[in-house]
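Please go through the sequence line and token line underneath and see whether the fold suits the sequence. See right below:
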Amino acid sequence: MCKIKNKKDLKKKLTTEQFHVTQQEGTEPPFMNAFWNHKASGIYVDVVSGEPLFSSLDKFDSGTGWPSFSKPLEKDHIVEKRDSLLLPQRTEVRSREGECHLGHVFPDGPKPTGLRYCINSAALRFIPKEDLEKEGYGKYVSLFSKEQKMNAHGVATVAGGCFWGMEELFRKLEGVVETTVGYTGGKMLNPRYEDVKTGTTGHAEALEIRFDPKKISYEALLEYFFRVHDPTTSNRQGNDQGSQYRSAIFYHNDSQKEVAESVLKKVDTSQKWKHKVVTEIVCATSFYKAEEYHQKYLLKNPGGYTCHYLRD
């Protein structure tokens, strides 16, 4: 983790783009860089000094085309400077030891920090979690033990109308470990209910389900999903109308996509529904947890509004 001050040495060490970004405050193209859609577990270090900067645990899909993080891995390794080059004024982010330009930080990230560290891939080097020890970053191995426990559970994300009723039915299902209602599938960063309810953000009221694969399969969850809502009504469920109430399955990997397509086809050809199934099957993106009063709403408010029920 040494700082290289000599520009000639840096030009030999770095690629042309790395040098332009880190030493000349450059910006790489969005969606055309190494880490914008990178999903592996590990940490990101300064490409010059090697100092730890960010963790994959805090990385999220901001839709901007650059790697985005909700917080630094080590706050002391980040230096913030006022950037008046463009209007409106921005806050530049630099590495302390490497003195490298990394990107900028904006106040529009997900909770709890509300921050979005928009970082150039060219300023970073990635260390996979399995290589942390041998690369000299062993102190960070423990960060991923909780992630490993969470990965023992499957994750399913679905939307089918008002998320109150969906959650109430799924949370009681054997094999379901945890349910969280929120917003996904849209473009706006950190949307709130007041935004989503307008139907203009592109988000759907959705349900994130953590489940025990030993007790219930992803396929069984989706079969249940098609029993608790009407998948034939476009942008509508009961009295609720708008794109935020659409029917959708947000798959997290290729295996889930294949299962979703298979289950949808089976439901569509079963003739249990009079009309064609219009459920979307799309790749999962950022999931924003809804406000606390929405969580377990019908458990807190028995008899509250719902248009969901279990069909045969």
